[in-house]
Design a protein that fits this description.
The chain has about 450 residues and is an alpha+beta fold. It has 5 domains: about 110 residues, no CATH class; about 80 residues, no CATH class; about 70 residues, no CATH class; about 80 residues, no CATH class; about 70 residues, no CATH class. The chain has 12 helices and 22 strands. A hairpin with a 2-residue loop joins strand 10 and strand 11. The radius of gyration is 56 Å and the shape is rod-shaped.
Length: about 450
Amino acid sequence: MSAAEALLQLARSFGAAGKAYTDLTYSDEFVAAYEAVEAECDGRVDRATKEGFEAAYCAGRREWRLAGGWRTAWTTAQADYDGCGTETAEGPFEWEGRQLRRVLIDPEFYGWQTGRYGSGGCGDWDEDPRVTEAKRAETLARENFEIEVGKARYAGGLFWLRDLDDAALESADDFEDKFFDELSARGLTWKDLRAEQRARRDKRAAVERAAKWAVCLAAFKDGDTLLDAGTEGYRSPYGWVPGQEPRAWRRCKVHPHYACEDDASEARVSSDEDLRSSVGTLEVVAGWITSGRMRVAGPEDLVPPRAVVERIGARFDEIARVEAFGKVAWVGRPVGSAGALVVDDDGHLVRAKKLREAAERVQGERYFGGLKKRSFKLFVCDHVQTRTVRFARDGVDPAALQVGRVCVACGAVRVKGGKGWHDAGCLELNVGGPYQETDRADLLEAM
Protein backbone atom coordinates (compact mmCIF):
# COMPACT_ATOMS: atom_id res chain seq x y z
CA MET A 1 0.00 0.00 0.00
CA SER A 2 1.41 3.39 -0.94
CA ALA A 3 1.57 6.36 1.40
CA ALA A 4 -1.21 8.14 -0.55
CA GLU A 5 -3.53 5.14 -0.23
CA ALA A 6 -2.79 4.94 3.49
CA LEU A 7 -3.65 8.64 3.86
CA LEU A 8 -6.98 8.12 2.06
CA GLN A 9 -7.79 5.13 4.24
CA LEU A 10 -7.01 7.13 7.36
CA ALA A 11 -9.25 10.01 6.27
CA ARG A 12 -12.08 7.62 5.49
CA SER A 13 -11.77 5.95 8.90
CA PHE A 14 -11.96 9.31 10.68
CA GLY A 15 -15.11 10.23 8.73
CA ALA A 16 -16.69 6.81 9.35
CA ALA A 17 -16.00 7.26 13.07
CA GLY A 18 -17.94 10.53 13.10
CA LYS A 19 -14.93 12.63 14.07
CA ALA A 20 -14.61 16.23 13.00
CA TYR A 21 -12.39 17.17 10.08
CA THR A 22 -10.11 19.17 12.38
CA ASP A 23 -9.62 16.09 14.52
CA LEU A 24 -8.27 14.42 11.40
CA THR A 25 -5.92 17.18 10.32
CA TYR A 26 -4.49 17.78 13.80
CA SER A 27 -4.01 14.15 14.71
CA ASP A 28 -0.52 12.60 14.89
CA GLU A 29 -1.55 9.78 12.56
CA PHE A 30 -2.54 12.25 9.86
CA VAL A 31 0.71 14.27 10.26
CA ALA A 32 2.79 11.10 9.94
CA ALA A 33 0.83 9.88 6.94
CA TYR A 34 1.05 13.28 5.27
CA GLU A 35 4.82 13.44 5.77
CA ALA A 36 5.12 9.99 4.26
CA VAL A 37 3.25 11.22 1.19
CA GLU A 38 5.57 14.24 0.97
CA ALA A 39 8.53 11.92 1.10
CA GLU A 40 7.19 9.92 -1.83
CA CYS A 41 6.45 13.06 -3.79
CA ASP A 42 9.83 14.76 -3.17
CA GLY A 43 8.42 17.21 -0.67
CA ARG A 44 5.42 18.30 -2.69
CA VAL A 45 1.86 16.94 -2.27
CA ASP A 46 -0.16 17.54 -5.42
CA ARG A 47 -3.67 18.98 -5.42
CA ALA A 48 -5.33 15.69 -6.45
CA THR A 49 -3.98 13.97 -3.36
CA LYS A 50 -5.28 16.74 -1.12
CA GLU A 51 -8.75 16.62 -2.72
CA GLY A 52 -8.62 12.85 -2.55
CA PHE A 53 -8.26 12.58 1.23
CA GLU A 54 -10.95 15.27 1.65
CA ALA A 55 -13.32 13.25 -0.49
CA ALA A 56 -12.40 10.09 1.38
CA TYR A 57 -13.22 11.81 4.67
CA CYS A 58 -16.62 12.98 3.24
CA ALA A 59 -17.38 9.46 2.03
CA GLY A 60 -16.66 8.06 5.46
CA ARG A 61 -18.68 10.82 7.02
CA ARG A 62 -21.68 9.88 4.81
CA GLU A 63 -21.36 6.26 5.88
CA TRP A 64 -21.43 7.38 9.48
CA ARG A 65 -24.47 9.59 8.87
CA LEU A 66 -26.38 6.87 7.06
CA ALA A 67 -25.62 4.43 9.81
CA GLY A 68 -26.88 7.01 12.32
CA GLY A 69 -30.32 7.50 10.61
CA TRP A 70 -29.71 10.41 8.23
CA ARG A 71 -32.25 10.38 5.44
CA THR A 72 -31.60 10.31 1.72
CA ALA A 73 -33.51 12.59 -0.63
CA TRP A 74 -33.35 13.65 -4.26
CA THR A 75 -33.79 17.28 -5.23
CA THR A 76 -33.41 19.66 -8.13
CA ALA A 77 -32.49 22.53 -5.78
CA GLN A 78 -29.03 24.02 -5.87
CA ALA A 79 -26.56 23.48 -3.05
CA ASP A 80 -27.24 27.03 -1.84
CA TYR A 81 -30.56 25.73 -0.43
CA ASP A 82 -28.80 23.22 1.84
CA GLY A 83 -28.63 23.93 5.56
CA CYS A 84 -28.40 22.29 9.00
CA GLY A 85 -25.69 19.89 7.86
CA THR A 86 -27.33 18.77 4.60
CA GLU A 87 -24.73 17.68 2.09
CA THR A 88 -24.65 16.39 -1.47
CA ALA A 89 -24.12 12.65 -1.67
CA GLU A 90 -24.30 12.26 -5.49
CA GLY A 91 -24.60 14.50 -8.48
CA PRO A 92 -25.55 16.79 -9.86
CA PHE A 93 -27.02 14.95 -12.90
CA GLU A 94 -28.78 16.41 -15.92
CA TRP A 95 -32.50 15.48 -15.76
CA GLU A 96 -35.47 17.11 -17.46
CA GLY A 97 -33.51 20.32 -18.02
CA ARG A 98 -32.49 20.58 -14.35
CA GLN A 99 -29.66 19.49 -12.07
CA LEU A 100 -30.60 16.50 -9.93
CA ARG A 101 -28.76 15.73 -6.68
CA ARG A 102 -28.91 13.10 -4.00
CA VAL A 103 -28.55 14.70 -0.57
CA LEU A 104 -28.23 13.52 3.04
CA ILE A 105 -30.47 15.33 5.52
CA ASP A 106 -30.42 15.23 9.30
CA PRO A 107 -33.74 13.63 10.28
CA GLU A 108 -34.28 16.31 12.89
CA PHE A 109 -34.28 18.97 10.16
CA TYR A 110 -35.79 16.91 7.34
CA GLY A 111 -39.11 18.80 7.25
CA TRP A 112 -37.35 22.15 7.37
CA GLN A 113 -34.97 21.19 4.56
CA THR A 114 -37.62 19.83 2.20
CA GLY A 115 -39.76 22.92 2.90
CA ARG A 116 -36.79 25.08 1.96
CA TYR A 117 -36.45 23.23 -1.32
CA GLY A 118 -40.15 23.72 -1.98
CA SER A 119 -39.96 27.45 -1.23
CA GLY A 120 -37.67 27.79 -4.25
CA GLY A 121 -40.06 25.90 -6.51
CA CYS A 122 -37.81 22.83 -6.50
CA GLY A 123 -38.95 19.28 -6.07
CA ASP A 124 -37.76 16.62 -3.64
CA TRP A 125 -38.27 12.85 -3.75
CA ASP A 126 -37.47 9.92 -1.50
CA GLU A 127 -36.46 7.87 -4.52
CA ASP A 128 -34.49 8.73 -7.62
CA PRO A 129 -37.16 10.15 -9.96
CA ARG A 130 -35.37 8.59 -12.92
CA VAL A 131 -35.83 5.16 -11.36
CA THR A 132 -39.44 6.01 -10.51
CA GLU A 133 -40.13 7.02 -14.11
CA ALA A 134 -38.54 3.85 -15.41
CA LYS A 135 -40.68 1.72 -13.08
CA ARG A 136 -43.78 3.66 -14.06
CA ALA A 137 -43.05 3.26 -17.77
CA GLU A 138 -42.50 -0.47 -17.28
CA THR A 139 -45.74 -0.81 -15.32
CA LEU A 140 -47.63 1.21 -17.91
CA ALA A 141 -46.27 -0.89 -20.76
CA ARG A 142 -47.23 -4.06 -18.94
CA GLU A 143 -50.72 -2.76 -18.22
CA ASN A 144 -51.17 -1.63 -21.84
CA PHE A 145 -50.12 -5.07 -23.03
CA GLU A 146 -52.59 -6.70 -20.68
CA ILE A 147 -55.30 -4.28 -21.84
CA GLU A 148 -54.65 -5.11 -25.50
CA VAL A 149 -54.73 -8.83 -24.74
CA GLY A 150 -57.99 -8.33 -22.83
CA LYS A 151 -59.47 -6.31 -25.69
CA ALA A 152 -58.60 -9.02 -28.19
CA ARG A 153 -60.14 -11.68 -25.98
CA TYR A 154 -63.21 -9.51 -25.36
CA ALA A 155 -63.68 -8.88 -29.09
CA GLY A 156 -63.49 -12.60 -29.75
CA GLY A 157 -65.99 -13.22 -26.96
CA LEU A 158 -68.43 -10.71 -28.41
CA PHE A 159 -68.16 -12.35 -31.83
CA TRP A 160 -68.89 -15.71 -30.24
CA LEU A 161 -71.82 -14.27 -28.29
CA ARG A 162 -73.35 -12.62 -31.38
CA ASP A 163 -72.95 -15.86 -33.32
CA LEU A 164 -75.17 -17.76 -30.88
CA ASP A 165 -78.72 -18.47 -31.99
CA ASP A 166 -81.66 -17.00 -30.09
CA ALA A 167 -82.59 -20.29 -28.42
CA ALA A 168 -79.10 -20.79 -26.96
CA LEU A 169 -78.94 -17.18 -25.87
CA GLU A 170 -82.29 -17.25 -24.10
CA SER A 171 -81.46 -20.61 -22.42
CA ALA A 172 -78.37 -19.11 -20.75
CA ASP A 173 -80.39 -18.35 -17.63
CA ASP A 174 -81.19 -22.06 -17.25
CA PHE A 175 -77.50 -23.00 -17.15
CA GLU A 176 -76.03 -20.11 -15.22
CA ASP A 177 -72.92 -21.83 -13.78
CA LYS A 178 -71.86 -23.43 -17.04
CA PHE A 179 -72.55 -20.32 -19.06
CA PHE A 180 -70.80 -18.08 -16.54
CA ASP A 181 -67.60 -20.14 -16.86
CA GLU A 182 -67.82 -19.85 -20.63
CA LEU A 183 -68.33 -16.09 -20.41
CA SER A 184 -65.40 -15.65 -18.02
CA ALA A 185 -63.10 -17.67 -20.25
CA ARG A 186 -63.91 -15.37 -23.16
CA GLY A 187 -63.53 -12.15 -21.17
CA LEU A 188 -67.26 -11.47 -20.94
CA THR A 189 -69.61 -10.80 -18.05
CA TRP A 190 -73.33 -11.15 -17.41
CA LYS A 191 -73.68 -7.51 -18.39
CA ASP A 192 -72.54 -8.34 -21.93
CA LEU A 193 -74.97 -11.27 -22.05
CA ARG A 194 -77.88 -9.07 -20.94
CA ALA A 195 -76.90 -6.40 -23.46
CA GLU A 196 -76.93 -8.93 -26.31
CA GLN A 197 -80.28 -10.35 -25.18
CA ARG A 198 -81.72 -6.86 -24.95
CA ALA A 199 -80.33 -5.90 -28.37
CA ARG A 200 -81.93 -8.93 -30.02
CA ARG A 201 -85.26 -8.29 -28.33
CA ASP A 202 -85.13 -4.65 -29.40
CA LYS A 203 -84.37 -5.72 -32.96
CA ARG A 204 -87.32 -8.12 -33.03
CA ALA A 205 -89.53 -5.45 -31.47
CA ALA A 206 -88.38 -2.93 -34.12
CA VAL A 207 -89.30 -5.35 -36.93
CA GLU A 208 -92.71 -6.01 -35.38
CA ARG A 209 -93.24 -2.30 -34.74
CA ALA A 210 -92.38 -1.43 -38.37
CA ALA A 211 -94.76 -4.12 -39.65
CA LYS A 212 -97.57 -2.87 -37.40
CA TRP A 213 -96.84 0.71 -38.49
CA ALA A 214 -97.18 -0.24 -42.16
CA VAL A 215 -100.46 -2.10 -41.55
CA CYS A 216 -101.99 0.68 -39.46
CA LEU A 217 -100.83 3.40 -41.84
CA ALA A 218 -102.53 1.61 -44.72
CA ALA A 219 -105.92 1.84 -42.97
CA PHE A 220 -106.43 5.41 -44.21
CA LYS A 221 -104.55 8.25 -45.85
CA ASP A 222 -103.71 11.70 -44.56
CA GLY A 223 -106.56 14.03 -45.43
CA ASP A 224 -109.29 11.39 -45.25
CA THR A 225 -112.46 12.01 -43.28
CA LEU A 226 -113.17 9.33 -40.70
CA LEU A 227 -116.71 8.53 -39.64
CA ASP A 228 -117.09 7.18 -36.12
CA ALA A 229 -120.30 5.21 -35.57
CA GLY A 230 -120.02 5.75 -31.83
CA THR A 231 -120.79 3.31 -29.04
CA GLU A 232 -123.85 2.49 -27.00
CA GLY A 233 -124.05 3.13 -23.28
CA TYR A 234 -123.95 0.27 -20.82
CA ARG A 235 -124.48 -0.34 -17.16
CA SER A 236 -121.39 -1.20 -15.15
CA PRO A 237 -121.08 -2.26 -11.50
CA TYR A 238 -120.42 1.40 -10.73
CA GLY A 239 -123.39 2.85 -12.62
CA TRP A 240 -124.42 3.81 -16.12
CA VAL A 241 -121.62 4.53 -18.55
CA PRO A 242 -122.83 6.78 -21.38
CA GLY A 243 -121.96 5.84 -24.94
CA GLN A 244 -120.17 7.92 -27.53
CA GLU A 245 -122.22 9.70 -30.17
CA PRO A 246 -121.37 9.35 -33.87
CA ARG A 247 -118.86 11.86 -35.03
CA ALA A 248 -117.09 12.87 -38.24
CA TRP A 249 -113.34 13.63 -38.05
CA ARG A 250 -112.43 15.70 -41.08
CA ARG A 251 -109.04 15.81 -42.81
CA CYS A 252 -107.34 13.47 -40.39
CA LYS A 253 -103.56 13.34 -40.15
CA VAL A 254 -101.07 11.08 -38.39
CA HIS A 255 -98.60 12.73 -36.02
CA PRO A 256 -95.67 10.37 -35.20
CA HIS A 257 -94.23 10.40 -31.69
CA TYR A 258 -91.03 12.41 -31.37
CA ALA A 259 -89.19 9.58 -29.61
CA CYS A 260 -90.23 6.78 -31.99
CA GLU A 261 -91.50 7.76 -35.41
CA ASP A 262 -92.71 4.28 -36.40
CA ASP A 263 -94.60 3.34 -33.22
CA ALA A 264 -98.30 3.02 -34.02
CA SER A 265 -99.19 2.81 -30.32
CA GLU A 266 -97.67 6.28 -29.70
CA ALA A 267 -98.52 8.13 -32.92
CA ARG A 268 -101.62 10.32 -32.61
CA VAL A 269 -104.37 10.87 -35.17
CA SER A 270 -105.99 14.28 -35.09
CA SER A 271 -108.46 16.22 -37.19
CA ASP A 272 -107.26 19.22 -39.10
CA GLU A 273 -110.33 21.14 -37.90
CA ASP A 274 -109.77 20.38 -34.22
CA LEU A 275 -106.10 19.97 -33.29
CA ARG A 276 -106.94 20.32 -29.61
CA SER A 277 -108.57 16.91 -29.44
CA SER A 278 -107.20 13.62 -30.70
CA VAL A 279 -109.09 10.87 -32.48
CA GLY A 280 -106.84 8.35 -30.77
CA THR A 281 -103.58 6.56 -31.38
CA LEU A 282 -102.91 5.21 -34.85
CA GLU A 283 -103.13 1.66 -33.52
CA VAL A 284 -106.53 2.29 -31.90
CA VAL A 285 -107.95 4.09 -34.96
CA ALA A 286 -106.76 1.30 -37.29
CA GLY A 287 -108.39 -1.22 -34.94
CA TRP A 288 -111.67 0.68 -35.06
CA ILE A 289 -111.56 0.75 -38.86
CA THR A 290 -110.87 -3.00 -38.96
CA SER A 291 -113.70 -3.74 -36.53
CA GLY A 292 -116.16 -1.59 -38.48
CA ARG A 293 -116.82 0.99 -35.79
CA MET A 294 -115.03 3.62 -37.86
CA ARG A 295 -114.72 3.91 -41.61
CA VAL A 296 -113.27 6.24 -44.21
CA ALA A 297 -115.86 8.58 -45.68
CA GLY A 298 -116.50 8.07 -49.39
CA PRO A 299 -117.89 10.39 -52.07
CA GLU A 300 -121.41 9.17 -51.28
CA ASP A 301 -121.14 10.07 -47.58
CA LEU A 302 -122.64 13.38 -46.56
CA VAL A 303 -120.48 15.13 -43.98
CA PRO A 304 -121.59 18.64 -43.02
CA PRO A 305 -118.95 21.24 -42.18
CA ARG A 306 -117.85 21.50 -38.57
CA ALA A 307 -119.34 24.98 -38.24
CA VAL A 308 -122.73 23.58 -39.27
CA VAL A 309 -122.60 20.77 -36.71
CA GLU A 310 -121.56 23.11 -33.91
CA ARG A 311 -124.22 25.73 -34.80
CA ILE A 312 -127.15 23.29 -35.10
CA GLY A 313 -126.03 21.22 -32.10
CA ALA A 314 -127.07 17.85 -33.48
CA ARG A 315 -125.29 14.72 -34.61
CA PHE A 316 -123.70 15.02 -38.03
CA ASP A 317 -125.76 12.10 -39.38
CA GLU A 318 -129.02 13.84 -38.37
CA ILE A 319 -128.36 16.95 -40.47
CA ALA A 320 -129.71 17.09 -44.03
CA ARG A 321 -128.40 19.00 -47.03
CA VAL A 322 -130.91 20.89 -49.14
CA GLU A 323 -130.11 22.41 -52.52
CA ALA A 324 -132.73 24.78 -53.92
CA PHE A 325 -132.90 28.05 -55.84
CA GLY A 326 -129.20 27.76 -56.67
CA LYS A 327 -128.15 27.75 -53.00
CA VAL A 328 -127.21 25.13 -50.40
CA ALA A 329 -128.54 25.02 -46.86
CA TRP A 330 -128.23 22.61 -43.97
CA VAL A 331 -131.17 21.76 -41.76
CA GLY A 332 -131.39 19.86 -38.50
CA ARG A 333 -133.16 19.75 -35.18
CA PRO A 334 -131.06 20.85 -32.19
CA VAL A 335 -131.06 18.55 -29.19
CA GLY A 336 -133.97 19.44 -26.91
CA SER A 337 -135.71 21.59 -29.51
CA ALA A 338 -138.90 20.90 -31.48
CA GLY A 339 -138.10 23.25 -34.38
CA ALA A 340 -135.60 22.99 -37.21
CA LEU A 341 -132.56 25.20 -37.63
CA VAL A 342 -131.43 26.17 -41.14
CA VAL A 343 -127.85 27.39 -41.65
CA ASP A 344 -125.40 27.88 -44.50
CA ASP A 345 -121.97 26.29 -44.97
CA ASP A 346 -120.40 28.73 -42.47
CA GLY A 347 -122.94 28.00 -39.75
CA HIS A 348 -124.83 31.29 -40.18
CA LEU A 349 -128.61 31.32 -40.04
CA VAL A 350 -130.34 31.41 -43.45
CA ARG A 351 -132.46 34.55 -43.84
CA ALA A 352 -133.99 33.78 -47.26
CA LYS A 353 -137.60 32.87 -46.58
CA LYS A 354 -138.22 30.56 -49.54
CA LEU A 355 -135.02 28.57 -48.95
CA ARG A 356 -135.66 28.38 -45.21
CA GLU A 357 -139.24 27.20 -45.64
CA ALA A 358 -138.20 24.59 -48.21
CA ALA A 359 -135.52 23.26 -45.88
CA GLU A 360 -137.97 23.19 -42.96
CA ARG A 361 -140.47 21.27 -45.10
CA VAL A 362 -137.74 18.73 -45.94
CA GLN A 363 -136.95 18.38 -42.23
CA GLY A 364 -140.65 17.80 -41.55
CA GLU A 365 -140.85 15.15 -44.24
CA ARG A 366 -137.74 13.45 -42.82
CA TYR A 367 -138.96 13.61 -39.23
CA PHE A 368 -142.62 12.67 -39.71
CA GLY A 369 -142.26 10.61 -42.87
CA GLY A 370 -139.32 8.57 -41.64
CA LEU A 371 -137.01 9.43 -44.55
CA LYS A 372 -133.47 8.17 -44.07
CA LYS A 373 -131.83 10.02 -46.95
CA ARG A 374 -130.02 13.26 -46.10
CA SER A 375 -129.37 15.01 -49.41
CA PHE A 376 -132.19 16.71 -51.30
CA LYS A 377 -132.32 18.69 -54.51
CA LEU A 378 -135.54 20.69 -54.82
CA PHE A 379 -136.96 21.84 -58.13
CA VAL A 380 -140.18 23.00 -59.82
CA CYS A 381 -141.86 20.66 -62.27
CA ASP A 382 -144.13 22.39 -64.83
CA HIS A 383 -144.76 19.35 -66.99
CA VAL A 384 -148.35 18.13 -67.47
CA GLN A 385 -147.88 14.65 -68.90
CA THR A 386 -148.04 12.12 -66.06
CA ARG A 387 -148.93 8.52 -65.48
CA THR A 388 -150.39 6.77 -62.48
CA VAL A 389 -148.12 4.60 -60.27
CA ARG A 390 -148.35 3.02 -56.85
CA PHE A 391 -145.99 3.90 -53.94
CA ALA A 392 -145.24 2.52 -50.53
CA ARG A 393 -144.27 4.63 -47.57
CA ASP A 394 -140.62 4.30 -46.39
CA GLY A 395 -140.31 1.45 -43.92
CA VAL A 396 -143.80 0.07 -44.76
CA ASP A 397 -144.55 -3.20 -46.45
CA PRO A 398 -144.30 -2.61 -50.24
CA ALA A 399 -147.58 -4.51 -50.62
CA ALA A 400 -149.37 -1.53 -49.01
CA LEU A 401 -149.28 0.52 -52.21
CA GLN A 402 -150.70 4.00 -52.56
CA VAL A 403 -151.76 5.71 -55.74
CA GLY A 404 -149.70 8.52 -57.17
CA ARG A 405 -148.70 10.14 -60.47
CA VAL A 406 -145.26 10.40 -62.08
CA CYS A 407 -144.09 12.98 -64.62
CA VAL A 408 -143.23 11.39 -67.92
CA ALA A 409 -140.71 14.14 -68.79
CA CYS A 410 -138.51 14.37 -65.66
CA GLY A 411 -139.63 11.57 -63.35
CA ALA A 412 -141.04 13.89 -60.66
CA VAL A 413 -143.66 12.17 -58.52
CA ARG A 414 -146.92 13.59 -57.14
CA VAL A 415 -148.24 11.46 -54.31
CA LYS A 416 -151.91 11.18 -53.52
CA GLY A 417 -152.70 13.39 -50.56
CA GLY A 418 -149.95 15.90 -51.38
CA LYS A 419 -147.25 14.56 -49.01
CA GLY A 420 -146.33 11.73 -46.71
CA TRP A 421 -146.07 8.97 -49.32
CA HIS A 422 -142.71 8.30 -50.91
CA ASP A 423 -141.06 5.70 -53.00
CA ALA A 424 -138.34 3.72 -51.16
CA GLY A 425 -135.76 4.97 -53.64
CA CYS A 426 -136.85 8.59 -54.00
CA LEU A 427 -134.17 11.13 -53.10
CA GLU A 428 -135.54 14.63 -53.46
CA LEU A 429 -138.70 16.66 -52.98
CA ASN A 430 -140.38 19.23 -55.17
CA VAL A 431 -140.61 22.83 -54.04
CA GLY A 432 -143.30 24.04 -56.41
CA GLY A 433 -145.77 21.24 -55.82
CA PRO A 434 -146.30 17.78 -54.45
CA TYR A 435 -143.65 16.27 -56.71
CA GLN A 436 -140.55 14.27 -55.82
CA GLU A 437 -137.62 13.26 -58.02
CA THR A 438 -136.96 9.56 -58.29
CA ASP A 439 -135.36 6.93 -60.48
CA ARG A 440 -137.68 5.13 -62.92
CA ALA A 441 -136.14 1.79 -61.81
CA ASP A 442 -137.27 2.46 -58.23
CA LEU A 443 -140.95 2.62 -59.04
CA LEU A 444 -142.69 -0.29 -57.40
CA GLU A 445 -145.51 -0.84 -59.86
CA ALA A 446 -146.60 0.99 -62.94
CA MET A 447 -150.28 1.25 -63.72
